[in-house]
Amino acid sequence: MQTAPVIPVIVIDDLDHAVPLAEALVEGGLPVLEVTLRTPAALDAIRAMKQVDGAIVGAGTVCNGEQLDAAVEAGSEFIVSPGLTEPLAKAAERADVPFLPGIATAADIMRGLDLGLTHFKFFPAEAAGGLPALKALAAPFHQCRFCPTGGITEQNAPDWLAFDPVLCVGGSWVAPRGAPDHAAIAASARAAKELNR
Q1: Which one of 30, 31, 82, 137 is CB 3.0 to 4.6 Å from 102, fit for a cystine?
Q2: For 63-92, how does the pLDDT look when each residue is reduced to its tens digit (9 = 90+)?
């Protein structure tokens, strides 16, 4: 979470797009890549992106232990989930893989703390009340750190990153779906890398 200010949230429809996209993002200074398990190509994309020098590749949209095991088998170096359940947290602990579960309420955070977790994805960030909501949630949980995801844009990311408990943000704007335009993605990644932290 402290490697770069932005973690690209990636949806791969065509496996041929995986490596060129990863190369452009890493070249631009965003090496931490979250490949969402939203398409049939996702696991193969993780395997392919892992071959790119400097890439730190993980799986997103992981909702259960079976998906977690498949993602780890594909080479995922971290796991991101839209929510938090005890079985999923225990599966991540068994697999000894960094786990970033989604939270949107105080009860979610308390469940996470009970499971020994202190780092969370605030999701869906904008729909769940935006920065004012996270500031209110973070106040009683000073030990927690967050990665807001969902509705984060190049325009609003600096506001989120200026809040101390936010270590990074997740955003899809740096990795649009479709055939990657290497120069445009690398430039977007370079701009994202320079956002305030």
Answers
A1: 82
A2: 999 999 999 999 999 999 999 999 999 999
34 catalytic per annotation: yes
CA-nearest of 154, 164, 160 to 125 is 160
Q: Out of 121, 126, 154, 193, which one is annotated catalytic? A: 121
Pairing of strands 32-36, 6-10: parallel
Distance of CA 54 to the CA centre of its chain: 17
Would you call 90 a catalytic residue per the annotation?
no
Collapse the DSSP code of 80 into the 3-class scheme (helix H, G, I; strand E, B; otherwise coil) and give the result. strand
Burial class (CB in 10 A: 0-12, 13-18, 19+), 89: buried
pLDDT at 196 over 80: no
Q: Which two tokens stand for residue 98?
A: 């960094």
Q: Exposure of 165 by Cβ count < 10 A (0-12 exposed, 13-18 middle, 19+ buried)? A: middle
Residues 165, 187: Cα–Cα separation, whole Å:
27
Tally of CA atoms within 13 A in the half-sphere of 81 that contains its CB: 28
Q: Out of 23, 34, 50, 126, pick the active-site residue.
A: 34
Distance between first and last Cα of the chain: 11
